Amino acid sequence: MPTSAKVVKPTPKPVVETYANFEAMRIAKGWPDVSAATKLSLPKRLLIATAALTTKDRMVRDPDYGFALLLAGPTSRDATRLLAKGVLMNDYSFGERTPAVLRSLASEAMRGCKSCVAAYGLIHFEGEDIPRNDAVAYKWYRWAAVVGNAKGIEATSLALVEGRGTPRNIAEAKKWAARLEPARRAKLYTEMAKRVVLSNSDEDMAASADLLLQSMTLNPADAGRPAKQLLNLDYDAPTQEKAMAAIRAAGPKVDPNALKVMAEVLWKRSNPEAVSEAVSMFQTLATRGDTEAVDYLSRALARSDLDKATKDRIVASLTLAADSGYAQASKALGNAYYYGTGVDASLEKAESYRENAARQNDPEAQYLLGMMLLQSTGDSENDARGRQWLEKSATGGYPLARAALQKLSSN
C-alpha cells in the first residue's frame, strides 16, 4: 500500500497581548496593587518589575510601580541590574534613596554590569535628586563605552560633541560612535549633528553636514530626519545637492519621509525640471496613500508651468491611488473633474469620485457630494440624497455641512 502523506499542521502564531496601559496589564495578569506587590517574594517582584520597566510599548510601562518593587525588602544582583535597565529606559526619581541606589549600581558595576555603569553616569548627568556633575557623568559614561555598552557609547559621543564634562572633540566622538551597528550609529550621527550646528560657525556647519550625510548613507531607510535638517536649514547648496543625490541613490529603499522632504524643497523652485521631479516623487508617495502628496498633486493640476503629459501622469497616479481605496485621492479627482482642473470637466466623474470618498467617511467629500446633488436641476431624488450626505458630513463634525443644513431648514 502506498504510504499516505504526512499531514503537517501549521505552526500556530503566537498570541500578542496588547494593553492600553500598565493598570490594564496588571489587572489582566492578576497582579496586586503596588502596596501588596512589594510584599511578594523576590522572584515574583522581579517578574512584575520587568514588565513595568521594560515592556516594549513605553506607554504601557509604570516606572513608579516597577522601581517600588525593586527597592522593597530583600534585593539581589539581578534586581540591581534590572534597576539599571529601568533607569536607562524610563524617567525616575529616587528621592532620599538615591545614595543607596548609586551604591548598589557602583557595586554591581565593579562586577561587570555594563548597564549599571551607564545608569550611574546618567544619574549624575541628569542631576535628579543629586547635584548634576558632568565630569563624573562623563567618567562613568566613558567606562560604559569602554566595556561596550551602547548607551554609554552614545552618551560619551554626545558629551564629546558638546564639551560636557570633557574637552570638546568631534573627531573622538565619531571614533566612539563607529563602534555602534550602522542603524544605531546613523541615529546618533543625526543627534550629534543637531548639537554641533548650534554654534553656527563655518567649521561646525561643515562637520554637522558631514555627520548628516553619513547618517543618510548608513541607513537610507531612515533618512528622513537627517534629510530634513540638511534641506531645511542653512547648509550650502553643494551640501544640499549631495543630500538629494543620496535620496535618489536609495531607490526603492528610500525613506518616504526623506522623499517627501526633498519633493517639498524641489516644489518651491522655479526651475521646471525641479518641479517635474517633485511631481514624480509626490506620485510615488500618493500611490502609498500619503495624503499630503495627494494634496500637492491636486495643486499641481492647476499649475500653468506643467505640460499636459505631466498632468496626465498625475491623473493616472491619483486614479491608481483612488482605485486602491485612498479617499483623499478620490476627493482630489472629484474636485479636478468638477472644476475641469487639468482634465476635461465631467460632472458624472466628479460625482462618482466624490461618492467614492464619501462612502469612506470623509466629511468634506460628503459635504461636497451633498451640495453637488442639491444643486442639480429639479431632481427630488437627488435632493433627498444630497440632504442625507450633508447630514452624515455634519455628524462627522464638518462645520460647512451644519451651516448648509441650517440654511435648508430655514427656507
UniProtKB/TrEMBL annotation:
Keyword annotations: Kinase, Plasmid, Serine/threonine-protein kinase, Transferase
UniProt xrefs under InterPro entries: Sel1-like, Sel1_AlgK, TPR-like_helical_dom_sf
Gene3D superfamilies the record matches: Tetratricopeptide repeat domain
Transmembrane segments: none
GO molecular function: protein serine/threonine kinase activity
Highest taxon listed in the record's lineage: Bacteria
Pfam families assigned: Sel1
Signal peptide segment: none
Keyword Ubl conjugation included in the entry's annotation: no
PANTHER family, A to Z: ERAD-ASSOCIATED E3 UBIQUITIN-PROTEIN LIGASE COMPONENT HRD3, SEL-1-LIKE PROTEIN
Name of the protein this chain belongs to: Serine/threonine protein kinase
Organism listed in the record: Rhizobium grahamii CCGE 502
Lineage, opening ranks: Bacteria, Pseudomonadati, Pseudomonadota, Alphaproteobacteria, Hyphomicrobiales
